[in-house]
Amino acid sequence: MIAMAKKREDREKGKKTRADAKRDLDAEFKSPIRSFSDLSPANIREALSGSRYLQILLSLTVIGAILRFYNLGFNSLWLDEATTRNIALRSLPDIWQTTTGGEFNPPLFYWVEHFMLTLGNSEVILRFVPALLGILTIPLVYCIGREFMDRNTGILAAAAVAFSPFLIYYSQEARAYAMMLFFVALSMVFYLKALKSNDLVNWGMFGLFSALAFWSHFYALVITGALFLYALYDLFPRIRNNPVAAKPLVCSGAIFAIVGLPLILVTVQLFAKRSASAPTFGIQGPGLIIATFSQISGSDLAMYFLGILFLAGIVQAFLIDRNKGIFLVTLMVMTFVISDVLSYKIPMQPRYLIFLAIVYFIAIALCYRPLYALIRSPGVVYGFMALLIVINALMLVPYYSTYSKEDWRGFAGGLAQLTRPGDFVVVVPGYVSQPLDYYYSNATDRTIEVGADNGTQLAEINAGRNNNTVFYVVTGDISAANPGGDAIAWLENNTKSRGSTTGIYLLTSG
Questions:
Q1: Orientation angle between helical segments 52-69 and 123-148, nearest 10 degrees
Q2: How confident is the model at residue 29 (pLDDT cuts 50, 70, 90)?
Q3: Which end of the chain is more exposed for a tag (fewer CB within 10 A), N or C?
């Protein structure tokens, strides 16, 4: 890592080797901006006019913004997003009480959404912050790639992030995944700087932003633990020779512990509660690994191609610097091992591992280097970037042309046309009323809305319906809410289908 820092310093001073100059898209251009004190309108104009990296990064960020804000309100709110809204409508202390009372998501994102809801109550308002943070993650990943290897790695990884269907999807969802990814990326920028300098400021910033990632989503604790573990390995030779060298890392851990302490205590309690019984949904075991790679890649087909590049990138990292390869492997392997174990105790989904997209795309970006060894031209970087963009762009076409979430907006409109005053609307399971009620009002429609979670409740509602028609609104969540299956059995024996749309089923009896 010390050698890496030296090479980095030489580049910044303009002492490039001939090979470096050819590989560098800026050639002999030297940026006038070396620190915050150099920021001025004139220097910014000169940097933008002379640096290909800044021009491309700015273009990627703008295009990434368009892709994340385009059709932001097209999809209806689904269950988890409706839950976000309902929790965010509470007061700030009540939101914290909701977390301590059993909500399995930290309060930071809900607090931010609480203030956003003062600007309005729409899908766009709820999804604005994730979209914005998704955009800001693009230049952060460039910085990570630059600190880890070089500017070419950074710009290629940034291009993959900008066009990633997986990351665009979660930038357009009113949940905390984009926020967690943003803070993890921000913490990694300071982390890589800290590994080189071992200074207190960078380690302190890493501890702070890691804590904010943890306050965004509990699973950030996994990647933070993996980063601390690698730091101990990397700094061990220095610490062995001089124990004082461990002071900045210890301070970083202390900052994380202090900022995250209230949430750490809650996490222990919630984990004990969540793991008390086997999960009724989610992906278990090795299947989680495959599903994660597939979703981050955008599709199963893309996974095979990008997976090969990923493995080649890991090999390339080991060839360049063994520690670089160990770094990438540590983050991947440790995350998957922990996730595999936890998947049998708590529900697990690939989206919880969204931060692995950074590692994945950085490794893929490293593949440009062996190609450059064969074709010594900056065109290799441009060509590789174009390849990554085309692969992702092809998968974005269906994303923008079809619903990617349950269409509760359209379903509610259709339901209102079918019902008559006095009819029953039974939501199965009951908590699915959250997205339905965002678009449907039983008071306006003059129907009676109730929830049911099992066969006994369904039978009781049906017995008291008199001569009114009962409409059953059912989603696949019933399998998790009623693992015994008596609710599905009752519905199969006592109702008839009126059709379905985007995973929402409408049944009737009477």
A1: 150
A2: confident
A3: C
Instruction: Provide the pairing of β-strand 504-509 with 496-501.
Output: antiparallel
Res. 9 pLDDT band, cuts 50 70 90:
very low
Rounded CA-CA distance 121/259 in Å is 31
Closest CA relative to residue 175, chosen from 67, 271, 307, 78? 78
Residue 474 · residue 505 · CB < 8 Å? yes
Q: Does the pLDDT of residue 32 top 90, yes or no?
A: no
pLDDT at 300 > cutoff 80: yes
With a CB cutoff of 8 Å and minimum separation 6, the contacts of 465 are 424, 509, 510
Q: Is the pLDDT of residue 108 over 80?
A: yes
The answer to whether residues 225 and 267 touch, using CB atoms and an 8 Å cutoff, is no
pTM score, whole prediction: 0.92
What's the pLDDT tens digit per position in 479-490? 989 988 999 999
| CA-wise closest residue to 176 among 206, 118, 121, 218 | 218
DSSP state of 316: H
* CA nearest to 341, candidates 197, 472, 222: 222
Count of beta carbons in the 10 Å neighbourhood of residue 108: 21
Domain boundaries, the chain: 65-401, 408-509
**Nearest CA to 476 among 425, 412, 414, 428?**
428
pLDDT at position 418 is 94
Question: Buried (b) or exposed (e) across 387-422, using 16+ Cβ within 10 A?
Answer: ebbebbeebbeebeeeeebbbbbebbebbbeebeee
Q: How far is residue 66's CA from residue 135's CA, in Å, rounded to a whole number? A: 9
Tell me the sheet residues that pair with 508: 471, 496
Taking the C-alpha atoms of residue 455 and residue 441, their distance in angstroms, rounded to an integer, is 25
pLDDT band (50, 70, 90) for residue 123: very high
Give the dihedral sign, CA 479/481/485/486: negative
| Alpha-carbon distance values, 242 to 86, 194, 236, 245 (Å) | 53, 17, 10, 6
Q: How far is CA 56 from the centre of its chain?
A: 24
How many CB atoms within 10 Å of residue 104? 14
Measured torsion, CA atoms of residues 368, 373, 378, 382, in degrees rounded to the nearest 10: -30
pLDDT given for residue 461 in this prediction: 92
Torsional class of 275: left (φ above 0), alpha (ψ -120 to 50), beta (otherwise): alpha
d(CA 203, CA 190): 7
pLDDT tens profile 363-372:
999 999 888 8
The more confidently predicted of residues 370 and 224 is 224
Lowest-confidence region among 4-18, 107-121, 403-417? 4-18
Read off the tokens for 499: 């059709």
User: How far from each other are the two terminal CA atoms of the chain, in whole angstroms?
Assistant: 73
Q: Which amino acid is at 168?
A: I
d(CA 157, CA 154) in angstroms, rounded, equals 5
